[in-house]
Specification:
Layout (H helix, E strand, L loop, with lengths): L1 H16 L1 H25 L3 H12 L2 H6 L8 H27 L2 H6 L1 H6 L7 H27 L4 H25 L6 H25 L9 H6 L12 H20 L24 H38 L3 H9 L6 H33 L2 H6 L5 H35 L2 H13 L2 H17 L1 H23 L26 H24 L4
Length: 530
């Protein structure tokens, strides 16, 4: 009875604390999906136009790798195809982060121990976070299905698409519950699950590109994809998805029963009584806090780069027949090889994904501040500027390391496949590193928000990134003029290796990032800590 009473109270608390962020990701995901369905008839008004687009996508391994194949050229089928990639990723990421936030983060802060001294049961926090997150996913599903039916699309396909989104969200919410039992740090749990989510998406991509049917059963993303909304729906794929959710929930509760409050199943390394000389200054302390997350991103991007290098050679023949890639190459004004257009587009998309790491690293300043860890550090001879710059150093240098790992792995594997490593490796490494200034602008924006409006910096930073991505989607669907992309930092960097290197735009991005960062430092100097 205590557990039931406590669970209900914690659900209300979660909904009150996260009312804004829940509303944002529920409405945003549903609105974007329905918006794509509403825009497609204007973009591809005839059956012939939609069929031609579907044929182009079938011959484009880049699109298949990033999103997957088109199963039906109807408005509903194209909506399911276009929204599947970012929809499943976004909902999965939001779900697992929500569960970790209200389980492991609460334990790490000590609030769970305080609540545990009341009528709240041992498993109430896990139960409440899962129930609230599951309900939010169902709301997204209902809004998507209702919106698509309202646009006149078939009810069965609309419901199947909405439920496939919700089922993926449930899976990653349950995975978040398992991750919360493994480590003593919420950051480590987020890092582990973020890398695992990326791995599952890569497995889905490799399965689609290579046509390996056995990979369909490896990744939940493939299960959701193979529901085939609007294309003779395969409802049977919901069975393994629901079964996996039940298994993961059972594992989470079992693990929660076998550990102490505040502890994790993975053993923590015992620290010495005194800090080592390498931890007696701000930069090395920041490195200690960030190195685990950085390592996970490096491994994930290096693995993805190796996979890309491995499939690029076989994809080149298909790229020759793709007018979409030819249009991309024409836009950058060169006579580059089609495979260079493939690499340029993939690097462009991965740069946007890496912005998540840069923003997350910068926002660690806020979490250290709210946890009062900043007070302890600033009580020493460490100045405010030293403390902030120690974290910013990782926010600026970390993406360089990750992109370097991507370029090296991609260049090495592709170079080995073509027999010319000396030529391919340096140019693909340069193609990744020129994207750094675009990411640095996001770091600068986040720092400026943190310096002046720390309480909303976490929300606004993600909204800014989402806004840049939505602008690109609007332009792609011909709902907005391409001139609006001048406010996005992602469009300025040269699209190497399919284009010539241009230094001036990179210099401009670096200046913008520097000005925003210095502005944020000034704001932080003028406000109270905490």
């Amino acid at each position: 009875m205590n557990t039931l009473v406590g669970t209900g109270s914690l659900i209300r608390l979660i909904l009150r604390r996260d009312r804004l962020i829940l509303l944002i990701w529920i409405v945003a995901l549903a609105a974007l999906t329905v918006g794509v369905a509403a825009a497609l008839p204007k973009t591809y008004p005839t059956v012939e136009a939609r069929q031609a687009f579907a044929n182009e996508t079938t011959n484009n391994p880049t699109e298949i790798m990033m999103i997957g194949p088109v199963f039906d050229p109807s408005i509903g089928g194209l909506t399911a195809w276009r929204t599947r990639g970012w929809g499943l990723l976004g909902l999965g990421l939001a779900s697992l982060l929500t569960v970790i936030r209200h389980t492991r983060t609460e334990e790490e802060s000590g609030r769970s121990e305080l609540l545990g001294s009341t009528v709240v049961g041992r498993h109430a926090a896990l139960s409440a976070s899962l129930i609230a997150t599951f309900a939010a996913n169902l709301v997204v599903s209902a809004l998507i299905a209702g919106g698509l039916i309202g646009l006149g699309l078939p009810a069965s396909g609309s419901i199947a698409l909405g439920l496939s989104f919700a089922a993926a969200g449930w899976i990653f919410a349950a995975l978040g519950g398992v991750a919360a039992q493994l480590t003593t740090s919420a950051g480590s749990a987020r890092g582990i699950m973020g890398a695992f989510l990326a791995l599952l998406y890569v497995l889905r991509a490799l399965g689609d590109v290579r046509g390996a049917s056995w990979l369909v059963w490896v990744s939940p993303f493939s299960w959701a994809e193979n529901v085939h909304p609007f294309a003779h729906e395969s409802w049977g794929f919901f069975v393994p998805m629901l079964g996996l959710v039940i298994i993961l929930i059972a594992v989470a509760y079992t693990l929660a029963s076998r550990r102490d409050l505040g502890a994790g199943l993975l053993p923590s390394r015992l620290a010495s009584a005194t800090a080592s000389p390498g931890l007696r200054n701000a930069p090395t302390l920041a490195w200690r806090l960030h190195w685990g997350t950085l390592l996970i991103w490096v491994i994930a991007f290096a693995g993805f780069g190796a996979a890309l290098g491995g499939v690029a050679q076989s994809a080149t023949e298909q790229l020759n027949a793709s007018s979409q890639l030819n249009a991309l190459i024409a836009n950058v004004g060169t006579n580059a090889r089609p495979v260079d257009g493939f690499f340029a587009l993939i690097i462009y998309l991965l740069t946007q994904a890496l912005s998540v790491y840069a923003i997350q690293t910068t926002l660690r300043l806020r979490s250290e501040e709210t946890a009062t860890h900043a007070d302890l550090v600033l009580a020493t001879p460490v100045s405010r500027v030293q403390w902030v710059t120690s974290h910013l150093l990782l926010a600026f240098a970390g993406p360089a390391v990750v992109l370097g790992a991507l370029g090296l792995a991609m260049g090495l594997v592709y170079g080995l496949s073509t027999g010319d490593v000396a030529y391919e490796l340096p140019r693909l490494l340069l193609a990744t590193l020129v994207r750094l200034p675009s990411i640095w602008v996001l770091v600068g924006i986040t720092m400026a928000l943190y310096g002046f409006w720390p309480r909303v910096a976490g929300y606004l930073s993600w909204i800014v990134l989402a806004g840049f991505l939505v602008l690109e989607l609007l332009v792609e669907l011909h709902l907005a003029n391409s001139s609006i992309l001048i406010i996005s930092p992602f469009v300025y960097a040269s699209r190497l290796p399919a284009a010539q290197l241009s230094i001036a735009p990179l210099g401009g991005l670096v200046c913008v990032a520097a000005i925003l960062t210095l502005t944020g430092l000034l704001g932080f100097q003028r406000r109270d800590v905490g």
